[in-house]
Write a structure and sequence with these properties.
Layout lengths: L3 E6 L3 H12 L5 E4 L15 E2 L6 H21 L5 E3 L2 E5 L2 H16 L5 E3 L1 H7 L10 E5 L3 E3 L1 H14 L3 E3 L4 E6 L4 E5 L2 E10 L6 H6 L8 E10 L12 E4 L4 E6 L2 E6 L18 H14 L10 E9 L6 E6 L2 E5 L4 H18 L13 H5 L14
Parallel strand pairs: 1-2, 1-12, 2-9, 5-14, 12-19
Antiparallel strand pairs: 3-8, 4-8, 5-7, 6-7, 10-11, 11-12, 13-16, 13-17, 14-15, 15-16, 18-19
Bound molecules: flavin-adenine dinucleotide.
Length: about 375
């Protein structure tokens, strides 16, 4: 008999939430193997945006479940969940975007998410520090917010271990060999045997882990950048609502006493370096500067307290993967939304393993084979990712 019922590869947000949900469903022997330290991949580098305003049914549902799960976990542990509910404006820059956004309000509302379309006149009253003459309107959800990635990691590690999950750090998975029943896994910390394996190895591992069994997992990595202004201009209130200017690919949220600004260059290509820490593209930062300075004039000329880059994961349609392409071998990927969807993705992966089905999500938005079939739907609300 294999030593573990399930071995999860990768202790990022996805892998740990999967292990936690499996343990909660009564699976006894669960190992999580992490090449580095828990959370030290994309997860801890993220900006923590927690948005239910998705651009597809899957995105909307995963956002809703994940928000609830973060809060439930805080309550279960008796510590803060790390979630801050400040509300979120997703901003439309053209009539075409406006039409798409207005359709999405219906989808979100039908799924129980408070969401409304607002014209610039109303937005000028609500958010007076933004120059709304540049935009055609925005959608708004008051229950969106952000999480602190470090707190999220603290909580999910604590909760998974409390339920008996064994976490092996500095444990790189190198070889996977199918057995008559289950798998033999060679790692930098020795050999494991498990009945089932979950590939949750993120932007810098999911594809390679798939290759070990000859399975194509189209998860790639590209550069994403974040800067933080330590002080908030007086015009911007504390705990101000977040905003995402979809067409320009930048977003803002509160960060301690200041303001965090995240952005991706639409011309960014897949990064083949295998690193999480990448060069900061100051040239692009300067090219984007007129955009955000014109949008929020009070931010112009503010000094920067910190700036960082990270490898963000993406799939060709920005949607997740929740699938079992080979008996007992599962693939889980977030399509670049692993903070806002991670808890929900872990819940659905546990459902697939225990019940052999994924309920409530459209199969065409989550199954791995859609990429080979070329039947891609695409999520309407996402960062600019490489094509
Ligand atoms: C700068 C930045 C900002 C972001 N902002 C947001 C945001 O605001 N909201 C949002 O929803 N998403 C955001 N993201 C995306 C989000 O961080 C990711 O989608 C999410 O963290 C992916 O989680 P994961 O568990 O799949 O990957 P990871 O966190 O990378 O975890 C995978 C783990 O697998 C390990 N691993 C890889 N190969 C092996 C191996 N062979 N053996 C053992 N272990 C292995 C890695 O070391 C890693 O720790 C951001 C990303 C970046 C880089």
């Amino acid at each position: 008999m294999a030593a573990y019922d399930v071995l999860v590869i990768g202790a990022g947000n996805l892998g740990l939430w999967t292990a936690y949900h499996l343990a909660k469903r009564g699976v006894q022997r669960i190992a999580v193997c992490e090449r580095s330290w828990a959370g030290y991949g994309a997860t801890m580098r993220s900006a923590g945006i927690m948005r239910q305003q998705g651009g597809s049914e899957t995105a909307v549902k995963l956002g809703k479940w994940s928000r609830e799960l973060y809060q439930q976990l805080g309550a279960e542990l008796g510590v803060d969940s790390g979630f801050r509910e400040v509300g979120y404006y997703v901003v439309a820059s053209s009539p075409m975007e406006k039409a798409v956004f207005q359709r999405l309000v219906e989808l979100r509302t039908a799924n129980g998410i408070p969401n409304e379309w607002l014209e610039p006149e109303e937005l000028c009253t609500r958010v007076p520090y933004v120059d709304w003459s540049r935009f055609v309107g925005a959608t708004y959800t008051p229950t969106d917010g952000y999480v602190e990635p470090a707190i999220v990691m603290r909580n999910i590690v604590m909760a998974a271990r409390a339920r008996g999950v064994e976490l092996f750090e500095q444990c790189e998975v190198r070889v996977i060999e199918p057995l008559q029943s289950g798998y033999r896994v060679e790692t930098s910390r020795g050999v494991f045997e498990a009945e089932r394996i979950v590939n949750a190895a993120g932007p810098r591992g999911a594809r390679r882990i798939g290759e070990l069994l000859g399975i194509d997992v189209p998860v790639a990595a590209s550069r994403h950048m974040v800067v933080s202004f330590p002080e908030r201009p007086v015009e911007i209130p504390p705990a101000f609502p977040m905003m995402f200017v979809l067409a320009s690919g930048f977003y803002l949220r509160p960060d301690e006493q200041g303001v965090l600004l995240g952005f991706s260059n639409p011309l960014e290509q897949a990064d083949p370096s295998d690193r999480f820490l990448l060069d900061f593209d100051w040239n692009y930062f300067e090219r984007l500067r007129p955009e955000w300075e014109a949008t929020i004039p009070s931010l112009a000329g503010k000094t920067i307290g910190r700036a960082w880059t990270g490898s963000i994961d993406y799939t060709p349609d920005q949607l997740p993967i929740i699938d079992e392409p080979r008996f007992g071998f599962y693939v889980l990927a977030a399509g670049g939304h692993g903070i806002m969807w991670g808890p929900g993705l872990g819940m659905k992966m546990a459902e697939l393993i225990v019940e052999e089905r994924v309920s409530e999500l459209p199969a065409e938005e989550i199954r791995l084979s859609r990429f080979a079939e070329g039947q891609l739907a695409a999520d309407a609300i996402h960062l600019p990712f490489p094509h």
